[in-house]
Structure formats: structure tokens, C-alpha cells
Specification:
about 325 residues; alpha+beta; Beta Polymerase, domain 2; Methane Monooxygenase Hydroxylase, Chain G, domain 1; seven-stranded mixed sheet; 10 helices; 7 strands; rod-shaped; CorA_TM1_TM2; CorA_cytoplasmic_dom
């Protein structure tokens, strides 16, 4: 579906052509065209390919979707794929994509499986005509910058939840299984974020310094800023991943300690009852030569001995911290 189509000249909108009129609009104007599509049909992509002479292989990638973040050069035309991430209803991350075609006189963004639009990016660019005069390279930067900036709230949310888990991990009667499940969920979200960020680092690295595509030469400093943002996110991902691994190990250690404490308590109570059982067994043998059987205070004495032995054992285990 076509979201927006505009021809810009000297940083201003001069026309809003349809997909079938792009080549004519570019011939009539001296600027460039910026087209945005969402979940396009095969017919729309075919018409776009015909009007702008887009590379067939890149169009096929945009048609199928499910691409790894990448940057490919087809002569003077660039094709970039980036992941759009957003929080899902189940707490995980849902993955969409945006594919960007960049030529000397056009920029085309094709969005798949995502509700995150770029109308804000277009509005910001139109409010800065001095930058929009830089042409398609600036638009490509603005789109990439918007995608990367949307990663920051996701990593911040993961770090906040991780800090909350760390704060409650040592509380008594904590549900260790629930903690491990939450840690595993955070690890999955981090993996999804890492799969989006790590390949994009290589993309941004190709757009500043060294051999830079012609259409992006004037925007190298801006792409370097995007690269710095990606490096920060990557560092946060690595730090959070290490924290999750450590927290998981600590939680498993706490589970072992809890089990050891339960074992100690069971062993302590078993020792107390074993002593009582042994004494009761001795006096319950009913031999004829047992003087306690004929003694009037034999029964109270036996109960007293059992109580004293059990109390002594209880006091000892209590001091040891077993009870």
C-alpha cells in the first residue's frame, strides 16, 4: 500500500505523483522522489521497479521479506534491509522489516509486518530543508537513524527488568522457577535485539570512512553518529547478556542452597525422632530384668529422658542453623 509519495526540489515538496507517474515527474523536476510503502502488493513493486529501474534481485528481496540486516550495492543504487522491533502482547519482541532503495534521484522505503511508520521522519526532514537539500543520502540517514533510535527504549526496558529481578532475587520465599523463566525471556529478547543490531553495525561502517557510496558521501558524519549509537547499544546488549548469565548462575546456586537447607532440616528432625524412637524401643522390649518396669516413676522418667534428649538435640541443631 502506498503511504506517501513526494518529489522534493531545493528541500521543498513540489509534486506528489502516483506510482505510474514517477518517471514523468522526475523528468519534469530537478529534485528527487521519496516514496513510502507498507506491505506492498506484487503489482505495486513491479510498477515501482519499472518506473525507477530498480535491481530485480533487490526487488525480489523486498517482495519476499525476512531478510537479514544488510547493505548491497547495485551500481549506483543501494539496497538496505533493517529490522523494526516492537514489544509484543506476550512480552516478547515482534520483528518487522524496512527495505530502502537509494538512488541518485529517489528513495523508496518498503515496510513489512510492522505498525511503526516513518511519518515523523518525513515531517522532521521537511522541517529541515537545508538538510533535505542534501538529497536521498540524507533521507537514507534519517530512516536509519529512526530505526536505531527505536532500539534504545527496548534495551532500556530489558535493563530495567533485569535490575528489578536482581533486587528481588535474594528475597526469601522467592519463586526460583519464575525467576529463571523471566531471565530466559530476557535472554530471548536480547538475542532478537542482537540479531538486528550486530549486522547493522557492518552496514553503518560501510557508510563512513573509506570507500563510501557516492549517494552517501556528503552524509558520512551523520552515518558515523548512527554507528556510534549502534556501538552503544551493542555494548549494552553484551553487558546485559553477561548479567543474565551471572544472575541465572546465582539463582541456580540459591536453588541448591535452598535444597541443602531443606535437607538439613529434614536430617535434624529425623535425628530428633530417631533418638526418641530408640529410647522408646529400648523401654518397649519388656524384658523381665528391666527395673523400670516395676518402678512407679518409670514411665514419667522415660518420658522425661525422651523429652530432655529431644530438647537437647533441638537446641543443638538450632544453634547450628539447621532449624
Amino acid at each position: 500500500m502506498l503511504i506517501n509519495s513526494a518529489v522534493y526540489d531545493d528541500g521543498r515538496v513540489v509534486a506528489e505523483p502516483d506510482l505510474d507517474d514517477l518517471s514523468e515527474a522526475l523528468q519534469a523536476q530537478s529534485g528527487f522522489v521519496w516514496i513510502a510503502l507498507r506491505d506492498p502488493t506484487d503489482d505495486e513493486l513491479t510498477r515501482l521497479q519499472h518506473e525507477l529501474d530498480l535491481p530485480p534481485l533487490a526487488v525480489e528481496d523486498a517482495r519476499k521479506g525476512h531478510q537479514r540486516p544488510k547493505l548491497e550495492e547495485y551500481g549506483e543504487i543501494l539496497f538496505a534491509a533493517m529490522h523494526l522491533l516492537e514489544a509484543g502482547p506476550d512480552g516478547g519482541l515482534e520483528v518487522g522489516e524496512v527495505h530502502v532503495f537509494v538512488g541518485a534521484r529517489f528513495v523508496v522505503s518498503v515496510r513489512h509486518r510492522s505498525t511503526q511508520g516513518f511519518l515523523g521522519v518525513r515531517g522532521r526532514s521537511e522541517r529541515e530543508p537545508e538538510l533535505l537539500r542534501q538529497g536521498p543520502g540524507f533521507v537514507f540517514y534519517a530512516l536509519m537513524d529512526a530505526v536505531v533510535d527505536r532500539y534504545f527504549p527496548l534495551i532500556d526496558a530489558i535493563e530495567a527488568e533485569l535490575e528489578q529481578l536482581e533486587a528481588t532475587m535474594f528475597q526469601p520465599r522467592q519463586d526460583r522457577q519464575a525467576v529463571v523463566q523471566r531471565l530466559f525471556g530476557l535472554k530471548q529478547r536480547l538475542a532478537t535485539l542482537r540479531h538486528a543490531v550486530t549486522p547493522l553495525l557492518d552496514v553503518a561502517a560501510k557508510l563512513h570512512g573509506g570507500r563510501v557510496p557516492v549517494v552517501c558521501k556528503a552524509m558520512q558524519d551523520y552515518f558515523r553518529d548512527v554507528y556510534d549509537h549502534l556501538v552503544r547499544i551493542q555494548a549494552s546488549i553484551d553487558a546485559a547478556r553477561e548479567t543474565i548469565i551471572a544472575a541465572t548462575q546465582v539463582n541456580l546456586t540459591l536453588v541448591t542452597l535452598d535444597e541443602s537447607l531443606v535437607t538439613k532440616r529434614l536430617a535434624a528432625w529425623a535425628a530428633i525422632f530417631a533418638a526418641s524412637t530408640a529410647l522408646a524401643g529400648i523401654w518397649g522390649m519388656n524384658f523381665e530384668k528391666m527395673p523400670e518396669l516395676k518402678w512407679a516413676f518409670g514411665y514419667p522418667m522415660a518420658l522425661g529422658v525422651i523429652a530432655v534428649v529431644s530438647g537437647a538435640l533441638y537446641w543443638r541443631f538450632k544453634r547450628l542453623g539447621w532449624l
